[in-house]
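Predict the 3D structure for this chain.
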Amino acid sequence: MFGRYLSTVGFPPAQNIYNHWRHWYQPGHLWWTQPPQLQHPSSSFSTVRHPFNRPPRPPDPYQWSSWRQTGVLPHTRGLHLSAGLMESTDRPPPQKRRKSAEGEISQRSPQHSPPKGSRSPKGSPEWLRNVSSIEVANRTSAVPELKRHWEDLSHLCKAAPSVNRGKQKWPFDFSVMSYNILSQDLLCDNTYLYRHCNPPVLDWRNRFPNIIKELEQYSADIMCLQEVQEDHYKQQIKPSLESLGYHCEFKRRTGLKPDGCAVIFKRERFSLVSCHPVEYFRRGVPLMDRDNVGLIVLLRPIDPHVSLSNICVANTHLLYNPRRGDIKLAQLAMLLAEISRVSQLPDSSVCPVLLCGDFNSVPWSPLYRFIKDRRLDYDGMPIGKVSGQEETPRGQRILNVPIWPRSLGISQQCQYENQTRDSELRDLEQTERESFTEASIEHCLRLTSAYSHHLKESGQPEITTCHSRTAITVDYIFYSAALGDVMAQAEYSAPPERGLQLLGRLALVGEEELQKVNGLPNQHNSSDHLPLLTRFRLHPQADS
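Done. Predicted structure below.
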């Protein structure tokens, strides 16, 4: 696939060159030696240990400089892609390694089929499938900027300050962003998803400035980022954001993938009380053999005039695989158990909670309903329908009862089992035993979504992620809604000082708007996800 781009700039034997790279790049090698004719004369590249205990990649197809540094491409002032010379993009995606059912690494068949879980995507737009090279050139020649407007909901919220003992107590307003910024490593591993993109758009040297510009423009007080690549985080993202007055916390995935989740907040608005990484991998528990993670921070709002409750902020990126809803639910249960522990107050209630991230589940799916309704009855539910990502999921395997084993240490109420006091535990032993035989799970958090998931004007679905195989919503900001909040369900709302009021949000767009800008990523939007941006109000505590 990489060879086709070289062919367009006047290098007919490009595929042969890349095959030569592949011959020398053996995944099993801890050390990698370049072929002599491709070695840089002044480079010690061949003797450098690669990070993450794995061999370095061949030149990045979207980092043109990496090809020049090896002498494959000459140094030129500009590259002019000729769409007419491109091969058809109907060509299957590249071969990809995957984990077999027995846990061993295996290679896919010569058909080079897409990764597991990518077929029959829900909402996959026809205009992004089977895109020809000429269409790519035409669509990317002058891509307009995606227009998003601010939805102001403040007129629906309590605006006047409360009065206590003759003193006015002003509320604390703050903004929150959730954004999957697309790891460059994952982009290069899944290039077939971006066949509609002009290759320079996918170059990290172009993507990074765009992403930082977006973050600086929106200037959110709290940012929850997913697919943050560790080397980019340490060398570029963290220094850039720290210079803008942010404090950064990061949790990398537990496996070989170098990306993870970050929670970032303005030092002038919040102070860090505690930080709690969550690893979903559990050795010896077959269901929990994936390397996804979460990150929870407890923040104290900074306001010298009033007493404000702490805010618990959780960020996660759940497993993608549409046919493993059991793993997604178990990962979510672990996260909810830790949120419940971190957010608990002395009176057994919880402080306001923000739950952000990429949940790889669509609105109104069973997993989404579980978060909002606090309960899921899953008797006879096919595993492939949990996330709703596929309209016609393959296979009809049913969720086990219970979904996760007791050895995980998480009850069916999404609580740590050892949190209960010994005296209470004796009384509840029988109840707990029975709960593990019922096809239902629960949690104690009262959460609602900051977005409605449909466009106000047309009623069409909102889109948060869009690439060659799908255009759907998978990203969310859930929050503890205060009584009277515009999005709150009356039975699930919290007292004003223990909940949040939604003041506004950056509107999402539909498929029609994304078609006009050639989908995602594009020259203005450098991820295959759109950032969610909201503004909340926290009222002072009554006794301050």
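DSSP finds eleven helices and 21 strands in the chain.
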